[in-house]
Fold each of these.
Amino acid sequence: MEFKKIILKSGRERSLINRHPWLFSGAVKQLPNAENGEIVMIQTNHNELLGYGFFSTQSQIVCRIFEFTSEPIALDNAYWRQKLNNAFELRKRLIDSNTTTCYRLLHAEGDFFPGIIADVYADVLVLQLLIKGTERLSAILYPIFKEMGFEYIYLKTKQSTQLLEQVESVSTWVYQAKEMPVTVLENGNKFSINVETGQKTGFFIDQRKNRQILANYAAQKTVLNTFSYSGGFSIYALEAGAHLVHSVDSSKDAISLCDENVLLCGHANKHESFVADVFDYLKQAPADFYDIIVLDPPAFAKHSRAVDNAAKGYKNLNKLGFSKVKAGGLIFTYSCSQHIDKDLFRKIVFSAAAETGRNVRILEQLSQPEDHPINIYHPEGEYLKGLLMVVD
Ligand code: SAH
């Protein structure tokens, strides 16, 4: 099959030789006369092949590369089947299916497949096609997922503000619908998930590892879980024997999900939930009450222009956390903003700590779990970072 070509400017192939999957328009000498989302080949100024990617007519990133190769290859169904199987095989090595039935199967660039997310909830697969290129491939991908054993596939369109590009598809069940909610296990903890109405693909599966770490510290403790959403951290704390858990979220729907999950785990007598703004809640919270505070806000910096304001938000939040946690208590703090890297996040948390004048020590540096792999050539994929700290 012949592909249209993107020709790079002389000397602008460095980032591709380094396998960075994003090609920016500034490096391009000649754009192809291709449709939005079409698969194209990328060549140097000397006609050497560098790889294949999804062309975009809409983004500064004119091509997202899914294959680096100097030799032409067939991009047939077998090629895509192999890509999906590689991702699936890795997950089989990483996930203990006896205790965990929800995980990320495809993590975009982290699985050499830009513009696609696939999350598994028991027998349901939730797909997000974030660019036109992956949307155009959907008719090839659906049968492969079916062959892999996923009978229920839900295509979930992100809200337009979160999209990398405009895609046309609307949220829908692909083959047959599954009645919601579905119950899944995460490290042996039960959660009820509605993939149709829930945030993201239904659950924040990227906090699995961090919830387990919280569980290690939560026995007999009084825990505040802020930005609780469906209660992920709260359930782990309760199951680990926490004395009391408070969950706070500004969304009434989120708190209803949280309450449902608490009922499912059977520790409702040790849990209380609050529909409130976390900043307001923390301001009026008593100091010296919580042994552990979890701070897991939504991404404050959704794009690079928002970094300064986001930094202020993280600083205020962490300052409130530091000032309210008991002496000897723990803070679990996170940022899922891709535009705030872990060094910057640590500096922000440092300045929050310094203003409270308390002694703070880092016990663990936290990140995203293994099923959200970070392509070493694409550091932007490292989006979730966190710190576990003890506060004297
Ligand atoms: N920690 C959660 C995920 C958090 S997602 C988990 O493990 O599943 C972020 C949540 O913060 C969303 O549920 C959103 O409703 C809530 N939120 C956003 N801004 C808020 C605010 N200012 N106060 C309280 N909750 C807020």
Amino acid sequence: MKSFTYERPGTPAEAAAAVARTPNAKFIAGGTNLLDLMKLQIETPTHLVDVNGLGLDKIEPTSEGGLRVGALVRNTDLAADVRIRRDYGVLARAIVAGASGQLRNRATTAGNLLQRTRCPYFYDTAQPCNKRQPGSGCGALDGISRQLAVVGASKSCIATYPGDMAVAMRVLDATIETVDARGGERKIPLSEFHRLPGDRPEVDTTLRPSELITAVTLPKPVPGTHIYRKVRDRASYAYALVSVAAILAKDGSGRVAFGGVAPRPWRVEAAEADLAKGAKPVTDRVFADAKPTHDNAFKLKLAERTLAAALNQAKA
Ligand code: SF4
């Protein structure tokens, strides 16, 4: 690991200003992804701005009937909160489907949203990777791509967004709140937060340089059966091959988003009108533009079957 300097600012705006004034500075909270990346020298920050002391660790009701989740709420605490368990079951289930108990104790809400891809070529510094080193090429395109994206990818990068929590937040229509170095605040719908790679796969999100996430707001609860189903290569501590976050009502209407298939949580709202007809009409529309590789075409059928299982679960 390369040496770096460290500071603990007093307010969110001070933290953003500290990152803004130091070239190649990074925020650190739980550190569950960043420290791994630093040890591998994939990330080499010169300065770390520790945001753990900023008090952004509350879950509070909003005047609209929803909840405002502080950026530093630990994943374990969010999944265990009685309001989340009662009214946002899809979110609680998605969080406990991710990582391990120890990691969830440490990982934060904002950090979970910002975790980087788990494409194996991204982590292997002997391989070309446009996301790690822009312009170097993509080792996965002609390599092993079983885990990687079937939709939303580009010729530059076919990596998936690896998280579970954000897939549930996408189906809940969550909004991300930020502050910048001048104290300016901004709200970003989760649907606009994670970027598709295009020809700039090194940029994962629409956050501006030095902008700090302060909270995630959940709208008022959506009635229906909340389901999160995750299919993976082993029963725990593995990323999704395919996951489904769904809220399904008795009349057959509902919402659904998919994880493990794209560079961001993948939701096509127009397809949700077909939920009452079964899984296939929905996944045919959701994946109409899919371009799977020879290794991962199985994900299309797996997504249909995972959604079918969720629909059966809701009926039961
Ligand atoms: Fe890098 Fe993306 Fe290619 Fe993986 S898929 S090697 S992250 S450019």
